[in-house]
From TrEMBL, chain A:
Membrane disposition: Multi-pass membrane protein
Entry's Gene Ontology BP terms: alkanesulfonate transmembrane transport
Protein name per UniProt: Sulfonate transport system permease protein
Top-level lineage group: Bacteria
Similarity annotation: Belongs to the binding-protein-dependent transport system permease family.
NCBIfam families linked: PRK11365.1
UniProt-annotated location(s): Cell membrane
Residue intervals passing through the bilayer: 70-90, 110-126, 132-151, 172-202, 222-241
CDD domains xrefs: TM_PBP2
InterPro entries hit by this protein: MetI-like, MetI-like_sf
This protein's GO CC annotations: plasma membrane
Keywords linked to the UniProt accession: Cell membrane, Membrane, Transmembrane, Transmembrane helix, Transport
Automatic annotation (TrEMBL), chain B:
GO molecular function: ATP binding; ATP hydrolysis activity
Family membership: Belongs to the ABC transporter superfamily.
UniProt-recorded name of the protein: Sulfonate transport system ATP-binding protein
Domain ABC transporter: 14-235
Biological classification of the source: Bacteria, Pseudomonadati, Pseudomonadota, Betaproteobacteria, Neisseriales
PANTHER family: ALIPHATIC SULFONATES IMPORT ATP-BINDING PROTEIN SSUB, TAURINE IMPORT ATP-BINDING PROTEIN-RELATED
InterPro entries: AAA+_ATPase (IPR003593), ABC_transporter-like_ATP-bd (IPR003439), ABC_transporter-like_CS (IPR017871), ABC_transporter_ATP-bind (IPR050166), P-loop_NTPase (IPR027417)
């Protein structure tokens, strides 16, 4: 009996243990807020944040902002990641391409994307393009570097084998080089996704008329701390979700890899 | 992409003239001359590091010779009018392709049934859908062997294809290679560390030493060869004593015949 309970209890304990500390913190936070230790100007009670969330959700406002932020991140990442992948493939596959492009890309990479903000505002105003440009700029390089290195570090012996078995051109790329580079490319994608959200937060708080960042900045003007905290939590959630998405891609595309079996 | 040689490959004749290979200042093969008839089965033995793999890679066109050349049916290798398959010493399976897809690499059309049949011949039919990382070392080696055999090339180069196998599986695979060779009559160069294997399979046994062909011994025994027979044992002994004599030829004129059984694996 006792042993049956304890064998069952171990997985439950394992699963729940990591959540004990966060749960206690939230409880402490709630307690501090309701007993006036924390004023709602500094940090509203967790329940107040939830209420703000449900209020904004019901008015449809939250969904609209979420959607626009999500699309900005997705399109910006699509453009930046796409260009990074393409450039990485070119420099990885051809010595001539590397000679021609790599130095340039490495030079531009040293420009911190956030330093571009004043210029970007001058160019695009607070247009959609400004946000997309920043996100694309920031996601290009992690994808580029990892694609390039991924292709360069494909096992030369496997390429030699495949060539001697008659593979050339596109089949060689599809069956040997791309799968060999994929683990590295996906690392780049995960980096880039994390970076995309950071850039978007900055871009949206500085210049936007919609999106989660705008929601937070707008709420700040009206001293709605609960909405500000909500926006912060939403960013965390969206970042977590995209990371989860990238992990799922790894699980599907790298299922041959001993690390994913 | 794939060579669709429909004609049953009658094998290709090889001529190696003055063939040398240097890596930096290390000379691995030195002015090697060798003639191999079309459809001949040549077993290559020699101590580790003597240049067996290098020889196969030169013949496969994967290394360029420092001097001399390799000709196939009289024409230089790079004209590439014939079909070669090299089974590498390391299995070199693509980790992201299933066992079946690895065997069918470079084939087009309806290759799956054929790949399954060859896999069955190397005893791995039920592993067709595993990833290479899920196989044992010997199983991986057999997948690589299947991948080389499926093409029925005109020239088959096998670099220690059975090194990781147990005695029983080894004999089965030897029989498989011999049977396929008898069916298709391609030219085979088989590198092995096992002198018994060399004598069992080769029309000739070549010993590579000091960058040259140190011994070129015809094996006139009828197939399939009986390992215990007197003729077999005598040939095996000749190769072994030649190898043993190598490090210091003056000092050891006559090797101890008693120890030979134990020394089969000593190469
Ligand atoms: N790419 C290379 N660069 C430099 N040296 C090499 C290279 N390939 C082989 N060698 C050298 O050439 C020699 C012969 O190597 P090779 O692989 O042909 O030996 P082998 O007879 O196949 O040995 P084994 O039985 O252990 O497989 C070795 O001394 C090795 O160090
Ligand atoms: Mg070798």
């Amino acid at each position: 009996m006792a042993s049956a309970i304890s064998t069952l209890a171990v997985p439950v304990w394992r699963r729940s243990a990591p959540w004990i500390v966060p749960a206690l913190l939230v409880l402490l936070w709630q307690w501090a807020a309701t007993h006036g230790v924390l004023t709602s100007r500094i940090l509203p009670a967790p329940l107040a944040v939830l209420e703000a969330g449900s209020r904004l959700w019901q008015s449809g406002e939250l969904w609209a902002h979420l959607k626009i932020s999500f699309w900005r991140a997705a399109i910006g990442f699509g453009i930046g990641g796409g260009i990074g992948l393409l450039l990485g493939l070119i420099t990885g596959m051809s010595r001539r391409g590397e000679l021609l492009l790599d130095t340039t890309v490495q030079m531009i990479r040293n420009v911190p994307p956030l330093a571009l903000i004043p210029l970007v505002i001058l160019w695009f105003g607070i247009d959609e393009a400004a946000k997309l440009f920043l996100v694309a700029f920031g996601t290009l390089f992690p994808v580029y570097i990892n694609t390039y290195h991924g292709i360069r570090s494909v096992d030369k012996d496997l390429v030699e084998m495949a060539r001697s078995y008659g593979l050339r051109g596109w089949p060689l790329f599809r069956d040997v080089i791309l799968p060999g580079a994929l683990p590295s490319i996906l690392v780049g994608v995960r980096f880039a996704l994390g970076f995309a959200w950071i850039l978007l937060i900055v871009a949206e708080t500085i210049s936007a008329s919609s999106g989660i960042g705008y929601l937070a900045m707008n709420a700040r003007e009206f001293l709605q701390t609960d909405v500000v905290v909500l926006a912060i939590l939403l960013y965390a959630l969206l970042g977590k979700l995209s990371d989860y998405g990238a992990r799922q891609l790894e699980r599907v595309w790298l299922r041959w890899h001993p690390a994913y079996q | 992409m794939t060579q669709t040689t429909v004609t049953p490959s009658a094998g290709v004749a090889l001529t190696l003239r003055n063939l040398s290979k240097r890596f930096g200042d290390q000379t691995v093969l030195q002015a090697l001359d060798l003639d191999i008839r079309a459809g001949e089965f040549v077993a290559v033995v020699g101590r580790s590091g003597c240049g067996k793999s290098t020889l196969l890679r030169l013949i496969a066109g994967l290394e360029s010779a420092s001097t001399g050349d390799v000709r196939a049916d009289g024409s230089p290798l790079d004209t590439g009018h014939f079909d070669t398959r090299l089974m590498f010493q390391d299995a070199r399976l693509l980790p992201w392709k299933s066992v079946l897809q690895n065997v069918g690499l470079g084939l087009s059309g309806a290759w799956q049934d054929k790949a399954r049949a060859v896999l069955a011949e190397v005893g791995l039919a039920e592993h067709a859908h595993k990833w290479p990382s899920q196989l044992s070392g010997g199983q991986r080696q057999r997948v690589a062997l299947a991948r080389a055999l499926i093409h029925e090339p005109q020239l088959l180069l096998l670099d220690e294809p059975l090194g990781a196998l147990d005695a029983l599986t080894r004999i089965e695979m030897q029989q498989l290679i011999e049977r396929l060779w008898q069916q298709h009559r391609f030219t085979v160069l088989l590198v092995t560390h096992d002198v018994e294997e060399a004598v069992a399979l080769g029309d000739r046994v070549l010993l590579i030493e000091e960058g040259r062909v140190g011994l070129d011994l015809p094996v006139p025994l009828p197939r399939s060869r009986v390992r215990g027979s007197a003729g077999f044992a005598a040939l095996e002994e000749r190769v072994l004593s030649r190898v043993l004599a190598l490090p210091d030829r003056e000092a050891i004129p006559e090797p101890e015949p008693v120890a030979l059984g134990a020394l089969r694996w000593a190469l």
